[in-house]
Backbone:
């Protein structure tokens, strides 16, 4: 039986974990910002750029890497162009949203590959959000072409660590194997196998909407999985701030939500304190009450999620 739209995972999304880090690009900057799940929020992007500028004023060079789903709520011609032109001026890779905007997959719907524990109403609303956004994207074939040229993942060498930057998990662009819920279900064996197969010291992901920071000793070294949840929406209980992953040789100048040091490299989840009032006002113009995005996401934008700070560290060993 074929999975319904929004739950299926197209074959084109899949890859072999062993192939992901055969070649790594050296990072010469001092700080990596890995930005997943911007979701078309221009105020979050403004804040992230200001955070990078503040780092640079302190003498650090910053590299911004967007690992997918930088589009979602930006369902107007002007905002669609603005978000994509700004993001594509940096290093970027695909999320399922960008893949489906560049070239829709038959039967994929939103391309989210939602697992069974996500309710069907959420799946159907996401499919309709994608349909609307695809209608906007079709008016911008130049951007669709640029999106189509993005890779599905990137492997970077930073501070002596091999950092695998992807969207879902090491088997699929839209995989949920590195979701917060998956760690809670005890998926440590498959995570360790992915670390062995990829050779990564750090896997930085997004896609699954909830953040986490996980570490374990493997082959006599600490390995880390960091999922930033969303840069453009709240991630924790009664906290509307977004989160990004920061990887650097020096600790952050502002207080991280969570952090871990590995072989002299600091891996942090940094809050993105964007202008929530301005974002809600713009969101309500694009997605008024009763719309699919408002039903699925407005409360999260205002109040964050039910996740507590302590829950950021599932199965930390």
Residues:
């Amino acid at each position: 039986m074929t999975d319904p739209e929004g739950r299926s995972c197209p074959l084109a999304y899949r890859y072999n974990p062993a192939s992901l880090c055969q070649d790594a690009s050296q990072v010469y900057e001092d700080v990596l910002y890995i930005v997943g799940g911007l979701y078309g929020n221009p105020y979050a992007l403004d804040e992230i750029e200001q955070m990078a500028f503040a780092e640079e004023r302190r003498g650090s060079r910053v590299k911004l890497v967007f690992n997918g789903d930088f589009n979602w709520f930006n369902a107007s011609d002007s905002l669609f162009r603005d978000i994509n032109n700004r993001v594509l001026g940096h290093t970027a890779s695909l999320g399922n949203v960008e893949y489906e905007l560049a070239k829709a997959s038959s039967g994929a719907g939103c391309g989210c590959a939602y697992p069974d524990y996500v309710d069907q109403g959420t799946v159907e609303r996401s499919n309709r959000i994608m349909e609307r956004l695809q209608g906007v994207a079709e008016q911008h074939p130049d951007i669709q072409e640029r999106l189509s040229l993005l890779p599905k993942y990137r492997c970077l060498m930073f501070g002596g660590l091999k950092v695998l930057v992807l969207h879902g998990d090491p088997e699929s662009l839209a995989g949920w194997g590195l979701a917060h819920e998956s760690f809670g279900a005890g998926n440590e064996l498959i995570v360790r196998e992915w670390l062995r197969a990829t050779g990564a010291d750090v896997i930085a992901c997004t896609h699954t909407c909830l953040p986490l920071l996980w570490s374990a000793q493997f082959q006599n070294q600490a390995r880390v999985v960091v999922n930033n949840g969303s840069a453009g929406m709240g991630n924790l209980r009664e906290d509307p701030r977004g989160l990004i992953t920061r990887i650097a040789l020096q600790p952050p100048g502002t207080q991280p939500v969570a952090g871990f040091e590995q072989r002299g490299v600091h891996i942090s989840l940094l809050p993105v304190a964007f202008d929530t009032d301005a974002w809600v006002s713009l969101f309500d113009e694009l997605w008024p009450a009763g719309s699919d995005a408002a039903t699925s996401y407005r409360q999260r934008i205002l109040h964050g999620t039910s996740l507590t700070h302590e829950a950021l560290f599932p199965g930390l060993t």
The chain has a mean pLDDT of 95. The chain has nine helices and twelve strands. The two ends are 39 Å apart (CA to CA). The first helix runs from residue 42 to 57.
